[in-house]
Request: fold
Amino acid sequence: MSKRDVKERIQDFLEVDEGISENNAVLEATRCMECVRPNCVKGCPVNIDIPGFISAVAEKNFRKAADIIKSDNMLPAICGRVCPQENQCEGKCVLGVKEKPVRIGALERFVADWERKNGIQKPDIAKPTGKRVAVVGSGPAGITAAAELARSGHSVTIFESLHAPGGVLTYGIPSFRLPKEIVKAEIDEVLSLGVELKLNHIVGRSIPVDDLLSYDAVFLGTGAGLPSFMGIEGENLNGVYSANEFLTRVNLMHADSFPDYDTPVLRGGKVAVVGGGNVAMDSARVARRMGAEVFLIYRRREEDLPAREAEIANAVEEGINFYCCANPTRIIGGPAVTGIECVKMNMKSPDESGRPQPVPIEGEEAKFIIEADVVIEAIGQSPNPLLISLIDALKKGERGNVIVDENGMTSIPHVFAGGDIATGAATVIEAMGTAKKATAAINEILK
Amino acid sequence: MAYKVEKASEIAENIFEYWINAPHVSKNAQAGQFVVIRIDEKGERIPLTISAAKGDLVRIVFMGVGKTTKYLSTLKSGDYVLDIAGPLGHPSEIKKWGNCVLIGGGVGIACLPILAKALKSAGNHVTGIIGSRNEKLLLLEDELKEDCDELVICTDDGSKGFHGFPADILKKKLEETNIDCVWIIGPAIMMKITSMATIPSKTKTFVSLNPIMVDGTGMCGSCRVTIGGETKFACVDGPEFDAHLVDWDELMSRQRIYPAQEKESLENFQEHQCRCGEHHHE
Ligand SMILES: Cc1cc2nc3c(=O)[nH]c(=O)nc-3n(C[C@H](O)[C@H](O)[C@H](O)COP(=O)(O)OP(=O)(O)OC[C@H]3O[C@@H](n4cnc5c(N)ncnc54)[C@H](O)[C@@H]3O)c2cc1C
Ligand SMILES: Cc1cc2nc3c(=O)[nH]c(=O)nc-3n(C[C@H](O)[C@H](O)[C@H](O)COP(=O)(O)OP(=O)(O)OC[C@H]3O[C@@H](n4cnc5c(N)ncnc54)[C@H](O)[C@@H]3O)c2cc1C
Ligand code: FES
Reply:
């Protein structure tokens, strides 16, 4: 892997990680032990035949490697870039015990990029079944479902409420981590299977629920788009953004190129980002690229940061200032933000997730103020309520998610769901995995 | 995919009426809902209220205030906008209220026809009160005369109809008759002041809030407003809310997050227009 120089990359939105060369990929592939009972495969939410594709890379048979990956993962160029490999495949690699695990993510990405450059092979499409399937949402769950269903010969329509497809891949994850050409290429590939894409269609509004339910089967992939706010004083001051808003303004609407593009965003001299996940890292690094000094406030310890390891390292290199074991108590200013008051946190015994419980330290001396003219809250998103609240018969869980059985079936027998709308905010690969399961079940009921 | 502007006209000074071909919107549009429009690839997403819907066409009425609305106003019949999404937001609460008063201020008048029609077919008696600064800024009078049982026209300068504000007429009506429900749609300051009139009588009063929006689908929180002490997203929880619970000062402050950028964007656009204009003369 070669990363672009920090000084250069914080000036632009081009990809940070330039990937590995063919030679290095082959060399890295030969490190694989080809375990008989590979743990890495168990660590992968979609159980890609990892030793299989790696041995194809070692043989320089990249086409074969791509075919192996693609039989389980429709979006390898994306997953190779954004999966939290350290908790999945690479975290389980036996080589990781003594030395470094095989760089499975980098190899996956190499193979996918190679295939894109050398021509993508169209998969076989089954004979038309005459069945109509509606897919709601064009994030990783929706795209995966649409591809699988189209390959099975169904007539598939994706409805997307925004003006561009991709869900979080388009409006959330910045291009320096996931170039938009790659998202586009993967989506175009799905559309080339004959899938129809209807943008600007808000299902539940532009498509009435009854019309939706009149399809032979429905897949809901509406994601976890509802941003949470902390509920503290000063949150509606000018200059306080949800991460979704800040990232959407920049990634989807190109506010970084204002006034060439029309959508504005406050650039901020000093930006405070609240949270410690991927969304927080992305917000911080976007703000940094627009010239701000950035402070990231996280309530647990540095080692508890839930973001991908590689992105935390990138953020540190790019000069993001971390305030760990701290939590905001109020936002100061009026009508515009001038600062954020925080309290230091003590770590108490771990909760179910194994992470320590943060508890505010009492007394005035535990409080401190960070000057800021922009505050970005990246503290989580919940399932998008817009459509599912309009479908009465749909059973919902306490966290606002759609309840599904092990096959992704909802309480309405021909309606299935996958991705964040079913699981709550999770990962790209899990969205794909759940979508794939649901499409297998849809194929069964459409037989 | 782009959407054709079938008919574009200027119906009052700097106020434009467009009929756009967008069946996914028009076939499902209800009173109180809005669309989000993006003119071209570099455009901003802006919300505009659905003023009417007929067959495949949806009508929007807007005032040229900044870059996007001024640029939109340069389109001619037969031109296209790149995106139109909708209908968005909760429909108005249409039921048999009894005596309804609908008040439109400025370009907010455009929101009334679809609402008046819906309320009338639900069996209500509908009084319309429309107001603008002067005669030249009045719109849709003839249509509203049809849609309402009674229509009162006001201008701030007395150039047409009653010399004064819709709030004055509303106060008089509240004294004279029993009013069951009021809608007030217009600039935030006008909605704030006018809705004060119904506080003493506790008359149910709806306003349509217009904070800055991005997606219009509940995904970003740009449109958050405080209603009865609680944060709501105007695009999905509204845009209509109980007037007496709105934190008006916050709304008005949040409408002014980007004054510098709005100015820059508009100046850029006008400069560019001038340059293109000169080009034509050569
Ligand atoms: C900033 C950010 C960074 C992230 N980084 C990572 C990462 O590095 N690695 C990782 O694995 N995961 C990451 N995630 C999480 C990951 O992106 C999500 O888990 C994944 O995108 C979920 O996919 P989905 O298809 O379920 O939903 P989404 O991607 O949210 O897509 C849902 C789509 O449905 C549309 N929609 C919603 N309602 C309707 C409706 N009624 N009608 C029509 N369309 C509708 C939405 O507009 C949206 O396009 C990140 C998330 C964010 C926000
Ligand atoms: C639900 C809703 C319905 C609306 N309906 C109508 C309508 O029917 N007719 C009409 O003329 N106007 C309507 N508006 C207002 C309209 O959206 C703004 O006038 C328009 O966005 C201004 O854009 P601009 O680039 O021309 O002006 P700018 O110079 O960018 O802004 C001028 C002012 O408009 C407001 N504004 C700017 N951007 C946005 C945005 N993205 N979303 C909302 N407000 C913004 C701001 O308060 C700003 O101060 C509505 C607003 C909302 C929220
Ligand atoms: S405009 Fe984004 S949530 Fe309302």
